[in-house]
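Can you give me the bound-state structure? Components:
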Amino acid sequence: MAKPIKTYRRIAQISTLMAIFIIPFLNVWEIYFIKGTFYSMDIGDAAIADPLAVFQSIVASGKLNAYMIGSVVIPLALMMLLGRVWCSWFCPYYLLTEWIEVAKKKLGMNLKKPAYDKQYPSRASKFRFIFLLLGLLAMMVIGVPVLNLISAPGILSSQALVIVKFCYVTFELVIVFAILFMELFYYRYWCRLFCPTGTFLSLFRYKRGMTVYKVKADCSMCHSCVNTCPMVINPMADGESLHCNNCGDCIDVCPDNKKEETLKFTFK
Amino acid sequence: MARNRFTEKLGKVLNTNPFKNFFKLNRMRPPGAVAEKEFMELCIRCARCIEVCPYDSIHRADLFDKLQIGTPYIYAETRACYLCMKCPSVCPTGALNPKLTVDSEVRIGIAVINQDTCLNYLYYKEEIEGVSQGYAQLCNTCNNVCPFTDEAIYLEKFILPIVTDKCTGCGICTEKCPTTPKSINIYPIGMGVKEEGGFYSRKNKLHGKTEEITETLHGQDLIDTKRRMTSFGSKDDFKYNVEIKEDEDVWQNQ
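Here's the bound-state model for the whole set.
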């Protein structure tokens, strides 16, 4: 039997988490093949930057240069091809929230997961796009890319760099910990409803890219995929939704998949 | 009339962005930084310049730097910039001008010498007055450590350090200055321009918090005049204890 998708996902996540500490160390040892943080990094000669961060500085300054455009090509191509895999497969903050969820289960705490209903995905989508818009509006009024101050993965990686290089942290880490602490009381609220980076990425979702799709017309209708979905959507119907981040938890949990392929990642 | 003045003031408040342009003495942006206002717009706080700096000169701003938190700063008093020119090329948004590769073209600030505390100036004054306070000594550190000795800084009459407009503002002189408080300080570029001063500089002025800044800094004019000034007047008023015949050339007679 094939290993569950979650195994591969964990490997990707943990290696990303380790990478944010290893990259600065490589830099200290004068190996410059891979350098940077999750706001912006270079792998070889390929430049990668957080599309939202670049978008903000373009809007704030009214300037555009080739390097800015070049650096968002790779993340946006990945986004269009594989969906919002950045969030579920690589983001260090997402991994922390998953560990918090495990801890909550072990401690017997109430997960407080909202119940799924048909209106929920569209309501949640509206909420997070309005939050992003408000954030961008605030950013334009202030004239400084301030949304970066609440971008959890970027803060985590840049703080890791500061820890490795200078052995101190700056106040931004407190912001992340505050967000993370609230995670104890609200189920995945940050990734689901607030995170501006994830919301901005999901704008570039392309229908032909990788999506969760119910291949077979009928299934046992156990709804275990709906119950397990961390984004509180229905994977059988809402695979193309901007909310889905292709984590693959629904595919792992589906009992029908063991007999015959029912729910799987597809390219259309 | 009064109303006009009010609207003028209001316009000034509204026209200057309160969140950009927050200057402090001895705190510069990394080399190649565009004007402070633009820098705040462009910088995405990615820490690339911090990572690449081999001397650990560039630090990440903390909470006390207000909304500038996360942006890169060089604190000249702890560790100055050694002008290795690695950081401008890594900036992903052009907040640091990537075309800047020559170290002598860097302009991140300008050094200003406090003539009341600089050891060399004290020495010279004591020599003129002929009275010793007991602590005068020749120092010359700023002249010796400057990467552009005799261009950015030179010794007038071989004793008084003078900063020229070739000063890059790297801050090495500030870092190495032996006096406390520092006798040579870096004014970051744009700090002296009153119109660019943001919310925090105004607030600081109101509360009189940063007295050293408001006292020594009265706009770009002061810096300019300080740079233009020679350290002596038209003629030095040193009292010689021998009679000097100015019209006689001593050397020829010997």
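A couple of observations. Chain A touches chain B at residues 24, 27, 35-37, 39-40, 42, 47, 49-50, 53-54, 56-57, 60-61, 63, 65, 67-68, 71, 142-146, 148-149, 154, 158, 161-162, 165-166, 170-172 (CB under 8 Å). The CA atoms of residues 140 and 257 of chain A lie 48 Å apart.
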